[in-house]
Design brief:
binds adenosine-5'-triphosphate, 21 helices, binds magnesium ion, ATP-binding protein, elongated, about 10% strand, alpha/beta, about 500 residues, about 40% helix
Length: about 500
């Protein structure tokens, strides 16, 4: 001990010689007899220790004994930063949490809330990048601000940009990843895939038609389904399906064959045309309206479905309005669904929906589709990441009391992990109401997390973590989204403008 202390420049005080004890002294000189001592007040009695008793809730315990710390989460998955409640490193592994039932996590979905510029997208990018080391692939379902481009480039993947004047075209009726190696497939597998393709297309057309506020009833569905089978050559039993486009579908609905009218059980051709007019007009908007030239030809971008990340930049669609962005997001959603349907066991994916309200505003079908994806994530090994500013964003998807709003409210409960970055006091109250936050947790969101970027309260099932995300120098370059503001001051040209 003296050696150890001297290494640090101190010296132990010298030991005093122990007092000399008389060896002969008998410690039990006066023994007490079996009846004890006699005399007044000479006895002994047990008295309880003078303890003060306090009663408090577990929330107040932390205030009275602030040094009590909970256990952190297991150190598995993407290490993101420091958890100030446990004092340890914080790692996120939603699939691991689900499999091990950590803190009652029952699904790997994550939802991020935070005021603009708090670092939501940055945290998600770091999460995706660090999970790649564990074999996860990332699909960005529509990059509406082109902010995932630097991340893609860093991973040697060229992001695709869609917009007027650009060569990229997206065919909503593309086979997507299901089209890979189609001809070499055994017959049963080809039939299985064909069934998946047709049901996905029908869902997609329902969404596209719904985005124009036109109902898509069962009769229209039968007509469209028959036309799709006909045009692809599936009805004739061809082993190779032809790629078709929205204009071809539109044309076929405008000039129905006698067999089609008959198969849909319309009285005559005119009856068919009258009944399917709203659907035709909604599809026509994609062919002849201001969206013409974007979604009406075969896909020209070759998306590598096996790359570590895939992203489609949509910021050039912004001037065309939310509808154009919404249509692109609907198509991408459909491709994303196909990709996860095709995934083999162990093929782990992170699907990112940044600015997700843009897609949800398209209507009930878009909300239903997101709802279905979140419910399926447990089965297809997919971490669905939804990013929004505040919970009430979700409630703007429809009229109060509508089905869309009811489903949107439920979406919160389909995400076992909720990440709450800094918010104003008012939104803090809203969060507390919807998520049942304790006053202390609400304060972390409105005070501590709002004081710096990248800070968040992580609700992992029933576990709470107070996390500061730590960026490496590489992350700083990949997550910086302030270039549009800082470029004029420094005279630098933002990277995204260069690309344009
Ligand atoms: N963990 C972090 N630590 C420090 N700064 C960060 C962190 N994450 C992001 N930032 C910085 O904060 C800025 C805004 O980040 P980001 O774009 O991710 O915010 P956001 O919440 O997604 O904003 P928006 O709602 O506008 O999409 C970025 O320029 C980035 O440099
Ligand atoms: Mg963002």
């Amino acid at each position: 001990m003296a050696q150890l202390v001297s290494d640090f420049g101190h010296q132990l005080p010298p030991l005093l010689p122990s007092p000399v004890r008389s060896a002969d002294a008998d410690p039990f000189a006066s023994l007490v007899g079996r009846r004890g001592r006699t005399g007044q007040a000479a006895g002994w009695t047990a008295v309880p220790a003078p303890l003060a008793v306090y009663r408090m809730t577990s929330e107040q315990v932390g205030g009275v004994w602030p040094l009590i710390a909970g256990d952190g989460l297991p150190p598995a998955g993407a290490m993101l930063g420091i958890d100030y409640l446990s004092g340890g490193a914080f790692s996120a592994d939603p699939i691991g949490w689900t499999l091990d039932n950590v803190a009652g996590v029952t699904n790997p979905n994550m939802i991020f809330f935070g005021a603009p510029g708090r670092g939501k997208s940055g945290t998600v990018k770091m999460f995706a990048l660090r999970q790649m080391a564990y074999g996860y692939r990332t699909l960005v379902l529509g990059d509406v601000k082109d902010e995932y481009e630097p991340l893609c480039r860093a991973l040697q993947v060229q992001p695709h940009a869609v917009g007027h004047g650009l060569p990229a075209r997206i065919n909503p009726l593309d086979f997507g990843p299901l089209g890979n190696d189609w001809t070499r497939l055994p017959r049963a597998e080809a039939q299985r895939r064909a069934a998946m393709v047709f049901s996905r297309w029908l869902l997609l057309i329902r969404g596209l038609v719904g985005s124009q506020h036109v109902p898509f009833g069962p009769t229209a569905e039968t007509a469209v389904g028959l036309v799709l089978r006909d045009l692809t050559g599936y009805t004739d039993g061809a082993d190779r399906m032809r790629e078709i486009t929205i204009p071809q579908l539109w044309q076929a609905l405008r000039a129905p064959s006698a067999e089609l009218v008959d198969a849909c059980r319309y009285a005559d051709r005119q009856h068919f045309l009258d009944e399917t007019r709203p659907v035709r007009d909604a599809l026509g908007a994609l062919v002849t309206g201001h969206l013409a030239g974007l979604f009406d030809a075969p896909t020209t971008v070759s998306v590598d479905w096996r790359a570590p990340i895939q992203s489609l930049s949509l910021s050039r669609l912004d001037p065309l309005g939310d509808e154009a962005v919404g249509v692109a997001l609907t198509c991408l959603n459909s491709w994303g669904r196909a990709m996860t349907q095709l995934a083999e066991p162990g093929d782990l994916r992170i699907v990112i929906r940044d600015e997700c309200w843009k897609q949800m505003r398209l209507g009930t079908d878009a909300v239903k589709s997101l709802d279905a994806d979140l419910r399926l994530s447990r089965n297809d090994g997919c971490i669905q990441v939804v990013i929004a500013h505040k919970p009430s964003d979700m409630l703007t998807v429809g009229d109060a009391g509508s089905q869309a709003v009811a489903i949107a409210k439920d979406l919160l409960h389909l995400c076992a992990t909720k990440v709450l970055l800094g918010q104003d006091d008012q939104i803090g109250d809203e969060l507390s109401d919807l998520l049942g936050l304790s006053p202390m947790a609400e304060q972390i969101v409105t005070d501590w997390a709002a004081a710096a970027r990248g800070r968040a309260l992580w609700l992992v099932g029933s576990h709470v973590a107070k996390v500061q995300t730590v960026r490496t120098s590489l992350d700083v370059a990949l997550t910086d989204t302030n270039d549009a503001i800082t470029a004029p001051a420094t005279g630098a040209v933002p990277a995204s403008t260069e690309a344009r």
